[in-house]
Amino acid sequence: MLVLGIDTSCDDTSVAVYRADTGRVLSNVVSSQYEFHAPFGGVVPEVAARRHAEQIDAVFNAALKEAGVEPKELNLVATTNRPGLLPALLVGLTFGKGLSFRLGIPFKAVHHIEAHLLSPFIGREPPFPFIGLVVSGGHTVIVVAEKLGKYKVVGKTLDDAVGEAYDKVAKLLSLGYPGGPAIDRLYRSYRGELLKLPKPKVKGLDFSFSGIKTATRRLFEQGAPAVQVAASFQETAVDYLVEKLKKAVKEVGVKRVAVAGGVSANSLLRERLLTLKEEKGIELHLAPLEFTSDNGAMVAYTGYLRFLLEGADPLTVGAQARSPIDEG
Ligand code: KG4
Ligand code: ZN
Q1: Which of 12, 152, 205, 234 is deepest in the core (most CB within 10 A)?
Q2: What positions does the entry give for substrate binding (predicted)?
Q3: Which letter does DSSP use for residue 193 in this model?
Q4: CB-based contact 28:54 (threshold 8 Å)
Q5: 200 lines ligand 1 (CB under 6 A)
Q6: pLDDT digit string (tens) for 225-269?
Q7: Is 111 marked as binding a ligand?
């Protein structure tokens, strides 16, 4: 079975072809819009939508070509319809539904966070139950995944997502957009002392990043060099994520952990998670680097699993800007 996966929920136009019977991703083409949003220091929804509309045909054609597949060979179209930037989501959704209608094949609408959550398992059966940490530009959640489609949010950010905090700190330090990779690189190059930033005292498994962000700004305004500020921010943010995850493992009592989303590409986070795995005997599943940021492969994979579980969606299905993962 050949599944097409489409994602236009934010600032990447992504299309992938997934062969479900062998579990192989035949192509995964991503066209990023970074340079269009860089002047604004963040994603502008209308700019994103216009760029998706300009790019989607070319990205679709490139994905089919790379996979060596003709449109008529496709068996299922899966497209992200929630959550995300509404104008951006609508471009992929309209394209996906149009394709499904034209080819006479089923359509499946996919939840973007569920797709990130399952991305460490692309190509095989997800091993439920597990604890999932999804860290991206729009989301920071800890989820208990009991079975396919049954997720319980046990922790979430009360303000900024961790990726958003990365992007705002990078903007403050004039490092460009997106901020995560730039800050990560500075951290790696820095050999000096790390400054202490207070970690927010939020109860339970919830997060807050606004305090870390403000403390980071203060350091910079007090004259600390940008590289030292960036490295100190990363040390604190990553420490904080790992601390909460450790707490979740203890409280939930599940030792299988999956970590995904754009920020899961972070080299320090991956390093600290591997240490946690050794120390606590955790079964760790990290999203492969190529599937950490937004991509069509995770959408094709998740759409396929949900299609097997509950069948296709009608072409009347709409897009939703907000949609907690435990509410469908
Ligand atoms: O999952 P994603 O591509 O899009 C959303 O669904 O939001 O995540 C994008 C986020 C951005 O905030 C970006 O700065 C962050 O992931 N990011 C990183 C790294 N690479 C990307 N953050 C920290 N370290 C990285 N290496
Ligand atoms: Zn995402």
Answers
A1: 234
A2: 134-138, 167, 180, 184, 266
A3: P
A4: no
A5: no
A6: 999 999 999 999 999 999 999 999 999 999 999 999 999 999 999
A7: no
Does 78 share its domain with 136? no
Give the pLDDT confidence of 26-45 residue by residue, as tens digits. Answer: 999 999 988 888 788 778 89
Q: Would you say the CB of residue 141 lies under 6 angstroms from ligand 1?
A: no
pLDDT tens for residues 159-184? 999 999 999 999 999 998 889 999 99
Instruction: Evaluate if residue 328 carries a pLDDT over 80.
Output: no
Cβ of 179 closer than 6 Å to ligand 1, yes or no, is yes
Residue 166 shares a structural domain with residue 185:
yes
- Taking the CA of residue 179 as reference, the ligand 1 atom at the shortest distance is 14
pTM, two decimal places: 0.97
Note whether 313 and 179 are same-domain residues.
no
Q: HEC string of 151-172?
A: EEEEEEECCCCHHHHHHHHHHH
Residue pair 188/203 in contact by the 8 Å Cβ criterion: no
Task: Confirm whether residue 137 is marked as ligand binding.
Answer: yes
Report whether residue 167 contacts ligand 1, using a CB cutoff of 6 Å: yes
Neighbours of ion ligand 2 (CB under 5 A): 136, 294
Q: Are residues 243 and 101 in the same domain?
A: no
Give yes or no: residues 165 and 269 share one domain.
Answer: yes
Range of the domain at 272: 127-287
